[in-house]
User: What shape does this take?
Amino acid sequence: MVVEHEGPRQQRKCKLTSPMPNSMSLIICIQRCVTLGDDESWRALRGLLSTEVANVSGLKVRGRAERRRFEDWLWGWVFQRRKIHVLYRALNKKAHDESTLPPSDDHEGYARNYFKTIVRSGVAEFFNERSGERHIRYQDTSALYERSASDSSIAESFLADNVDAMRRLDPEYRLPFLLRHAPDLLDDSDLAWLGDTSGLGSHEIKEQIASELDRNSGRKYPLDAEFIGRIMGIRPAMRGSSAVIDQRCKRARTKLKELLPHGKDADHDELP
Assistant: This one.
């Protein structure tokens, strides 16, 4: 049974708050949720991050009713577990490391990517509670590695935090890597590229990815090289097409390592 979490309205007493600005940036909204905790700020935050919730959970949480139930559960869980406080501390640490305290709108991309890691953890917890199993290895969009939960979380967070570097890779390398290791980080432009290349269209590509993830949920890599090759327009009859995908994934890892801080000389053990 899924445990219903109460949100801020049920748990917090009414507080005196400053007037809600007509248009509020994500960074300011996060700050208000942490420092004021008023309902208006939490509602605004939910709206500002709705796209991230939909993109991360959409490949696993299927159906309108299921999505609505998950989103209501997620925000109660985020509130009770003080996940926005964790995000706020991470923002301040990043701003401090960059000598740009306090965090500014320039850190919005980092905040959105960090929140995606929170949603992925939420997806896992949601299905864990629903199944009633205490110990389960999730093989969905929230965890794609047959490793311990902590190691998996490190790898996922690392990819999410460095998504800007991933975007600098050519799609021929970036997309096989993401499809294999973190399909939830695919955005609309990635799906459009795959749809154009394969001739299937972005909606059909998204449906096929979701179906394949469900069908192979117990595997280390639910999207295998043959499937990736097919949706990338590589002819199934092409001899060695799986090897092509493997090589592109290795090449993407090498290129990404060169784009990260300290370049190819750093270890970057978090890379999958």
